[in-house]
Amino acid sequence: MTENKLIPQHGGFRKLRSFQCAQSVYDGTVVFCERFVDKRSRTHDQMVQAARSGVQNIAEGSLASATSKKTELKLTGVSRASLGELLLDFEDFLRQKKMRQWAKDDSEALEVRGKFRSEKSGWSDKADRSDKSDWSDSSDNYHFSELSAERLANTLICLINQASYLLWQQMKFLEKEFLNTGGFTERMYKTRKNLRKF
């Protein structure tokens, strides 16, 4: 028998720190748009959809990894791009409303970043086997519904930047993994070749 499985371990996206952070961004964006963006405007729908895409593509990519690392890598990139689009929306909101955007080293930004530390563990379920009980940053901890528009927009900018960083680390890991282990077609060929030896 070959020691490499044809279909590798996959899924487990709920344990990904990138997924957890993106999910907080989605939850916060829904609250933000309900409170501060006209529900009839195109911006409302676009922001919510961009936030949703950030979450859904991580999940889809994780599940697709069973047969395609290429698809997983592509969808992880789509997630990061969607969050990048959302980041611009929040920055535009602050600029157009003449509100202050926190610098990355402002005390408020450091407080938000302190709630979600990327250095605590790796990005993936392979590197971080902790369940959500180890992760102290549920969306409730941010009190999205109680924050002012300025504070909420800035909080979400911090979380988007954190999610983007985690996704970039994830993409680098996936690239390395793909180069080392190959894709599904290569594994199929190797598995069949090994079986013919017996």
How would you briefly describe this protein structure?
This protein is mainly α and 198 residues long. The protein contains 6 helices and no strands.
General description of the model:
Residues 118-137 have low confidence and may be disordered. With 198 residues, the protein is mostly helical. The chain has helices spanning 17-36, 42-64, 69-96, 107-115, 149-181, 184-196. Helix 1 packs antiparallel against helix 5. It has one domain.
Q: What descriptors fit this protein?
A:
198 residues; 6 helices
- Tally the helices: what do you get? 6
Low-confidence stretches: 118-137
Distance between the termini: 9 Å
Shape: elongated
Based on CA atoms alone, the radius of gyration comes out at 19 Å
Number of domains: 1
How much of the sequence is in beta strands? Answer: under 5%
Structural class category: mainly alpha
Major β-sheet annotation? none
Helix-strand pattern:
HHHHHH
The portion of residues assigned to helices is: 55-70%
Mean pLDDT equals: 81
Secondary structure tally: strands: 0
Write the layout of secondary structure elements.
Blueprint: H1 17-36, H2 42-64, H3 69-96, H4 107-115, H5 149-181, H6 184-196
Helix pairs in contact: 1-2, 1-5, 2-3, 3-5, 4-5
